[in-house]
């Protein structure tokens, strides 16, 4: 037998608890002197630890259990469903509470005020087809009548009466002056009268929306769009959190969905909103238990599905920024969950925004009647759609 | 504690098979209790011997189906875990014979993606490394490490001596170390770097 292989066999037997006591001392001496043997020892320990962490092989999936029980005719309703409910009642209850609150808020809130689709100025304008309005304009003109002393002049003046002029001339031309001027003092009589000379008819088109003058008159500064309540927000976000519990495993971040969340919020007013959040996130778990009277330490870092009912308080800074604080209460697959978020939403347009913030989560779970806590902290970021 | 939790494996087994003395509800409860006690061990065996998810679950379900349908109240059950493992072993070996012996690349990726809790890197590598071992070595390793059976118990189960099983388990460990050597060397380098 090879020298190294003999030590390896002793090492294997030692790990199995079957090494003869007399061989322990030479084995430890060899461990102290052979680095390669120490390496082998650590690798064998790692293999054994990997077996303990191989949770997939140690826990039959609940779907398999359900299928088996159904196939042997055992009522699924008694055992499996009860087991499922024991695990899922908190997420289900959270979702139900969130849905109930949303429904309640929608039912109790006043119906939204009708929102005009045009500005008041535009609404007041006639929008009927243009028509022609007849305007009768009476033109008055001061008429000065000179009574000539010279009958010839008088006759000449009489020949050019307004009735013989064209309408245009009547309108714009003054009466022709007398041909012969006589000193005022010599005038025998001066009569001044104001009488209607002519009645004119004009065809005036009615004003239309295309009238440049009117178009110019409605150019008013746009009013800010009023916030309408109720309203919904759909929020898609990523979670960059890490557990404060230290375990040797790497977090399960196999896919984008392992660190993401989706939320639906119902805005009650300028500052208050409620909703539900569902997501997946790695939680480091370290807990102890007994198996065959041996105390074991379990460590895992699985991505767990969670759901919470949320309340958000928000305010407005400037036109585009909305700082907010949010709390949520719900559960994961393994136990109760509380979440809190502090962040800010940037909404350059009314229906779309991006958010970034700090996120904290605290999960409580129980194993073999002992409670354990796992806190997660980190950042969150995402987009929201308002509708 | 319910009444079935206080019963021994032998009493539970007898109850499953005795339809004259026990109601269906009592027999179902006895089966559920046996399942609660021994399903992790049987599942670990099926999962690590078969490797593939679907066939492992088939074998696992088939094992308990056979227990349920063949329960005989006149039989004295002295070692129910060993009995279950024997059924599981027969089922797995039969399934193995009817299957390809290689794991397709797509299948490998499907396994790794569909196991969210298999987050321990070494545990995941170990699961696939086991599939590369000869069935005798793999079985000795799984029954000893996962199911906690002694070499003598394994010997009884597979029909060989404890010494042979011990050697198989030893060889299995050495082969696993060899297969996982790249992982171990990377880890050693990481540790040295961090120091």
Task: Give me the secondary-structure topology.
The complex is a heterodimer of chains A (387) and B (195).
Chain A: H1 3-16, H2 21-33, H3 35-53, H4 55-58, H5 62-71, H6 80-108, H7 120-124, E1 132-146, H8 151-159, H9 167-172, E2 190-205, H10 212-217, E3 231-243, E4 260-267, E5 272-282, E6 285-291, E7 294-300, E8 303-314, E9 321-332, E10 335-349, E11 352-367, E12 370-386
Chain B: H1 9-17, H2 24-50, H3 53-70, H4 80-97, H5 105-113, H6 121-130, H7 135-146, H8 151-158, H9 162-179, H10 181-194
Helix pairs in contact in B: 1-2, 2-3, 2-4, 2-7, 3-4, 7-9, 8-9
What top-tier CATH class of the largest domain in chain B fits best? Mainly Alpha
State the major sheet of chain B: none
Q: What would you say the CATH architecture of the largest domain in chain B is?
A: Orthogonal Bundle
What is the percentage of strand-forming residues of chain B?
Answer: under 5%
Largest interface: A-B, 49 and 46 residues
- Tell me the total number of β-strands of chain B: 0
In the CATH scheme, what's the topology name of the largest domain in chain B?
Answer: Rna Polymerase Sigma Factor, Chain: A
CATH architecture label of the largest domain in chain A: Beta Barrel
């Amino acid at each position: 037998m090879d020298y190294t292989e003999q030590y390896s066999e002793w090492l294997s037997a030692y790990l199995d608890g079957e090494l003869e006591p007399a061989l322990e001392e030479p084995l430890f001496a060899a461990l102290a002197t052979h680095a390669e043997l120490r390496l082998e020892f650590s690798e064998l320990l790692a293999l054994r630890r990997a077996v303990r962490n191989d949770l997939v092989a140690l826990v039959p999936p609940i779907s398999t259990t359900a299928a088996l029980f159904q196939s042997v005719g055992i009522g699924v309703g008694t055992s499996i469903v009860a087991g499922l409910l024991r695990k899922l009642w908190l997420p289900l209850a959270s979702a139900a509470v969130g849905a109930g609150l949303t429904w309640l808020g929608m039912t109790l809130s006043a119906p939204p005020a009708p929102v005009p689709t045009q500005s008041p100025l535009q609404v007041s304008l006639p929008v009927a087809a243009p028509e022609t309005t007849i305007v009768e304009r009476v033109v008055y003109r001061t008429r000065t009548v000179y009574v000539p002393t010279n009958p010839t002049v008088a006759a000449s003046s009489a020949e050019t009466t307004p009735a013989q002029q064209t309408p245009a001339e009547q309108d714009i031309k003054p009466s022709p002056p007398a041909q012969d001027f006589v000193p005022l003092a010599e005038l025998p009589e001066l009569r001044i009268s104001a009488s209607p000379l002519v009645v004119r008819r004009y065809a005036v088109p009615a004003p239309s929306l295309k009238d440049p003058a009117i178009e110019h008159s409605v150019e008013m500064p746009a009013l800010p769009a009023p916030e309408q309540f109720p309203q919904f927000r759909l929020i898609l976000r990523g979670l960059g959190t890490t557990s404060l519990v230290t375990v040797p495993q790497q977090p399960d971040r196999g896919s984008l969905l392992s660190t993401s969340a989706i939320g639906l919020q119902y805005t009650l007013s300028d500052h208050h909103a409620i909703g539900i959040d569902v997501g997946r996130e790695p939680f480091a778990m370290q807990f102890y238990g007994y198996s065959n009277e041996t105390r074991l330490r379990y460590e895992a870092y699985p991505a767990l599905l969670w759901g919470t009912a949320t309340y958000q308080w928000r305010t407005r800074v400037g036109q585009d920024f909305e700082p907010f604080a949010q709390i949520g209460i719900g559960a994961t697959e393994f136990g109760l969950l509380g979440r809190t978020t502090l962040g800010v939403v940037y909404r350059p347009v009314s229906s779309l925004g991006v958010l970034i913030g700090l996120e904290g989560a605290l999960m409580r779970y129980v194993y073999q009647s002992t409670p354990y806590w796992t806190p997660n902290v980190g950042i969150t970021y995402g987009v929201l759609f308002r509708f | 504690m319910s009444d079935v939790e206080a019963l021994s494996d032998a009493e539970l087994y007898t109850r499953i098979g005795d339809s004259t003395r026990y109601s269906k509800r009592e027999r179902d409860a006895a089966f559920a209790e046996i399942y609660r006690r021994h399903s992790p061990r049987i599942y670990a065996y099926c999962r690590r011997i078969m490797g593939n998810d679907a066939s492992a679950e088939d074998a696992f379900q088939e094992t308990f189906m056979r227990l349920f349908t063949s329960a005989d109240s006149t039989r004295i059950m002295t070692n129910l875990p060993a009995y279950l493992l024997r059924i599981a072993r027969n089922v797995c070996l039969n399934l193995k014979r009817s299957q390809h012996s290689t794991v397709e690349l797509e299948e490998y990726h499907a396994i790794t993606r569909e196991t969210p809790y298999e987050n321990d890197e070494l545990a995941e590598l170990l699961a696939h490394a086991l599939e590369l071992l000869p069935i005798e070595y793999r079985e000795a390793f799984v029954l000893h490490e996962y199911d906690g059976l002694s070499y003598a118990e394994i010997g009884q189960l597979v029909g060989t001596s404890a010494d042979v099983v011990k050697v198989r388990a030893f060889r299995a460990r050495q082969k696993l170390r060899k297969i996982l050597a790249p992982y171990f060397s990377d880890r050693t380098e990481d540790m040295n770097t961090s120091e």
